[in-house]
Structures are given as C-alpha cells and as structure tokens.
Amino acid sequence: MSEYQNTRIPATLNIDELARVNEIQRRRLLQLMLAGSAVGVSGVLAGCGGDGSTLLPASSSSGGGSAAASAPAAAPAPAAAPQTQPTQDVPTSSFSVMVLPDTQFYSRYASQKMGMLYQKLYADIDPRYNNPFKAQTQWIASNAQQLKTAFTMHLGDVVDQSWYYSSEKSAPWTPSTDLVGNGQIAANTVQKEWELASQAMQVLEQAKCPYSICAGNHDVGAIGSDMQWGPDWGVGVTGFDNTDGYQDGGSHRVNLFEPYLQVFPTARAQQQSTFGGRHSSGFHEYHVFQAEGNRFLVLSMSWRASDDAIAWANQVIQKNPTLPVILINHQLMGIGQDGVTAADTAYSNYMWDRLIKNNDQIFMAVNGHYHGSCTVTKKNAFGHDVFLMVVDYQMAYMGGNGLMRMYEFDLTHKKIVASSFSPWVPVKPQAELNNFDSAWLTEANQGFTLDIDFAARFGGFNPGFAVPAGTRTKAITQQAKETILTNFKSPTVAASRPASGPDDYPKVANTLAHWRFYSSTAAEGDKFPYQNGQQIADVSPAGANPISVNTWMGKDGDLVWSKSHHPLSAAPGSLRFLNATGSRASYFTTDKTSKLNTEQFLSGYTVEAFVYIDPAFDANVNGWMGILYRLGARSHLQGFGSGEGDTPMMFALSNLMEFQWEIVPTDQATNLTCWSGSISAGQWLHVAIVNDPADGYATTMYVEGAPVLRNNSNMHGIQYVAAQQQMAIGCGQWADGMSTGFLGSLGEIRIVGAPLPPSQWLTARAS
Q1: SS3 assignment, position 711
Q2: Local confidence band at 327 (pLDDT 50, 70, 90 cut-offs)
Q3: CATH number assigned to the domain comprising residue 669
Q4: Which of 5, 44, 470, 494 has a CA positioned 20 to 30 A from the CA of residue 706?
C-alpha cells in the first residue's frame, strides 16, 4: 500500500501547517494543493530594500565541555521552544537578517578541480543557480525588499582549500572586477574555489545588499606552509589552552600569503555603505546597518582572533556606545555529538571573558565551524540575556544542500524568529529530488523563537531605542516560507517494503561475496562463539569466501548477537561489535587463499553494507574505525612512498563520522576517495558504493538511497599488495598493523563485481 494512501488531506492548509507535516507527506500536499500558485514569478535583481525586488524564479525544469567558572551556566534557553510565528493582529515593525553558514563545500565541489560536481549532478538547472552558494545569494538579493533584509552575515569557511589559490592562478579582486556584468555567473567561465565564492558574494554587491565576510580556518594562510591553523597577525592568544597543537602565538602565519585578503580585501569591504572598519590584520571587520529607524552593529571576527584583535573589537564597541551588537565569530560555541546540544569550548570561554560578558551591547552571537545547529542563552555581567547560536550545515546532505538561516527581528511582538531553509532545493531539477531534499527545516533547533523586549534589553546603553509603528500585515517568516515552499513540487518516491522473510532480496549475477551477520537460533545478547577460525558463511551462490573471526586483539564478549536490523534488510538480525578502541578489536578476515583477496574489479563493482554506529562513538577513540579493508600498506605498491601506511582499499568511518571509501586504482599510483556527509550514531544505515565502467569508472556512494556529493571518477579497479593479504571486516590497518576496531553493529555486507541499480540492492525485494 502506498504510504500516501493513509494521508488525510485537509480542506485547507496554510504554510505553517504544511511545514510541520512529515516531509514526504508535505511534498505530496504541495503537489496536490499549491502547484498553480503565482508566488515566485520571475524578476530581475533590485537593490536591497529598494523597489522592484521580486522572488527568486523557479527553475523551469522543477517548478520550483563544561563552562569555566567565569562563564555563567547556561540558563534555560527560550530557543528550545519551537517556532511560533505571532499572529499579525496589528501592523508589525520588523526586518530580517540573513546568515550564510560555512559555504566551503559549495565553493570546492563546484570548482573545476573537483569535477564541477553540482553542475554535473544537476545539469538541467538554471545556470544562475547551478551551485548552492550562488542560489543562496541570488535568493537573498531577489527577495530583500519584500523580506526587509537589512544585512547578510557570512560565518566563515568561505572556501575549503585556500591554498589552491596560487596553483589555480586565481585572480585577486580589484574595484573593476565585475563577474556578474561579465556574464560569468551564467557562462560558468570561472571554476576556481575563490572565484566561485567571489561570484556568489558579488551578487549581493550588485544588488546593493550589504554583508559582512569572515575568514574561517579553511580560509586562512597555508600558502608556503603546511601550518594552516592559528591566530591572526602573529600577536598571539593567551588565557586559554590552544589544543590544536599550534601554541607559537600565531608566528607560523607571519608573512604567509593570504588568499582571503586578495579576494576580500579592505578595499572591497569599503564599497559597502554599512562598512565601519577593519582590524589592521584585515581579518576582522564591523558594519553598521539601519533598520526600522534604529542602528545595529555587526562585529565579524575571523578564525582565532588575537589579543590585539580582541582589543580592537572592544574599542569598536566603545566608540559606538549606543548600538546593539551582533557578534559573528567563525568558531565560538561548540556543539555536542548529537548536533543539537550546545557546549562551551576553551575558545568560547576565552571570548566570553575577554569580549562578550562585559559588553552589554552584545545581545547575540552566531558562529559556524561546528557541525549542526544549537542555541543557548547565558547571562552577562549585567544580568542580561545573550543568545549564542551555532549554525553549520556542511556535513548535511550534498555539503549542506543550500541550507541557510534567517532571523526575523519582530520589534512589535518582542521576538527574534529563527528559520532554516534552502533556496537551492526548490530550483533543483524535479527528477533529481529525493527524501533528503528538505526545503524548510522544522526541528526545534532549526526553527525557533527567542523572546526579547528590545527596548528594555537595550535600554541601559540606548534609552532612545524606539519601536516604530508597524507597516507589515504579513510576518516576514511567513513570507519567506511562501517563497521557498509554494513552488516546491514533490518528487516521485517509490514506497519501501520490508522483507517478507530472510530470502526476500534480489539475487544477482557476479556476486563475489555476501556475509549475513545474524543467527537464527541465538537470543538477544548471546555471545558469538569466540574462538579463532569461527566462521560466518558466504551465502553467495559460489560460497567461496567465508570469513573467520580473529580474537588476538579482543576479548570474549566483544561480539554478541542481536535481533536489531535495518528495516529494509532481509536478514532478521545483526552482530554487535563492542568495546572497540584504537588498540582493541575483534574482527573477521577472508582466508589467505580467497580469490577475493586478488580481485581487481575491472568490470566495476557494488559494495553494500547495513551499518549501525554505536551511540558511544568517541571521535578521539573510534575515529577512522574500519568497516571493510583490503589489507597491506600501499607503501608496498609501485609509485608510493614509505610513509603511505594506508591500505589499497578502505571502507571506514572518519573522526567526523563520515563514511569513507578510498581505493588505489589499478592504473594510477594515487588514492581516490568518496565521502559521505556526517552521519548520526544510533540508527541503521544502508550504504551502497557503485563503480560504473560505462560512466568513466565513476564511483558513487549512496547513504539510505541518496547519492552523496563528494564522489570521484576514474576509479578503474582496485589494486592489491599481495595474494595472501586478506580482506578484513570490523577493523582498520595502518602500516601493516591492525588498529581501530569497529564500534557498532553490522547486518549484511555484499560485494558484487558489477554496478547495480537500486532495484537490485539489498534494500529491494526479490519480486
């Protein structure tokens, strides 16, 4: 039965209700009810706040740790409440501020050196919006007037690999640079990270939409040095433990060539009407914008601000004693492993002590860097609330999928309303949409309301702050929802069907091995028979590649049977791998005589796995844990140096909780990798890795059926070191030594010597 058949569609449904329903149901409702809306008609860019600004046109193809003693404990955060947009019962005085979180993957993977992945994946998209970064700034510029957008703030990590600036022969910015006017937005004649980023931000400049820019750790100097991270300007940072390993006070960055300062120099920032000034390093700046008759100051602090920069920031605030301040800092508050819970860091405590707590004008601070979204409220030295927020989507689907943040400052109703959404998703080609394409996020940490009596909060330093008579009859958040959702049509999503039994999955030719980690006779928690050589059968037709347990690095009780399994796996159970660390593991290997050890996969391949990551995953202990490895250090392969301790084939989980598929092709002396975004522990995931000779040996990783962004091509076959070097399941290897056992559960792993479509994956049914 279709999953839609039980969906009761109400006679009327407003945009608020629409955003709260299940994602697939929401798309279905949109398809049925909103397809003919006129909202989102095409138009030209106009100045921010000026006449003539229109909605972003829809694509014709789509339709659309604990705090330090000096940092007060976090108060119950009003942001924990879900977003509740006030009823426009009276004309409202309001404006919006837009936030661009870490855009690094958009710049990197739209670049030529990375194969222009967005353009390749979405070849039919309108070229004005053919990467998420451009789609974001085009949408801001197009909707600035109707959403009363006063300012846009970039949170840093503008690009991913700043050091490519010189090797790509990127051009610095000059006042005569006009990428938009030269047609390079549409013609795609610039495909370098820094120039792609420059293009995107120039859209705002052309539309007279003021913004602040910020250098993240990926934007600061690495040209001529392998030491990228550290404070600016070489003045040094004191007062906190700089645990990233660079404690030389920033001197390693002195005299380094800084691409950020070439592309976003002070002269470029000075072109904006809101520009107030920059720190002498060029890395920190402030702007003053006006909205609803009041002035606000945005203080943008780049990566690891030095003592000198913080002193400058304090002086900026002192020289503007009546202005409410929004602080932007690439790294400030941290975030828990769940991507939701706020966490203090050594640096956030340092900045709290040196800049935030004694400056009552700072009422909110927003940072990126840490993956996820969270909000916490603290009391400053004056007893007033300071809202601290993390926003960073780079590890979400497709490198962030164009997700951004908007804050509506509703002066009349005394609220700041936060919304998170993607202008990129609605302009993707309709046929390319899948379950991961969320245009408007509804979780409590993504859409929420902060209560703030602006006049009272600012009264101590600005008694003249006034709330003018309102002019809007529709809330800005509501208007933004309509621009994003109204022309967003539902993709066709095939209904999933659980297996009717353990044999209900497609049997396919060229299956080289299929291991099913379950026992039909064991009870939940029963120990796996723990002795060297104990086998798990290969259930492929040939059955030629059983795997045997290795216990020398583990202990009895490290492997236990479970009834838990992925809902689409026909295997009715799994095997739990417990207690794994960098030096402890119980794992399986193929026989030394197995033909799989020397298989080169020249006709392509499909590797599938049902994987569950234990919620106890600790990046410091379990990062880079092995799922499936081909053993043997690649330093033994021709063309590799002695320091190459990694193996010719690795399926692992990184310290950032990304799936990694890395191989050495048979015709190249290099390693090529596919990466997922950051995944969550505590849930079953199906991973499929498909290598297709018909597509130039392109390899695509799919997580829960959706292709990831960071794939690779020209991955022709897989090398091996020696015939006796085995395949290993549940452990990694470095420099010929086993290390970092798998922590979690495995349900099934299947290796097929050919590319398979989804209809033949283990998530499909036999008929």
Answers
A1: coil
A2: very high
A3: 2.60.120
A4: 5
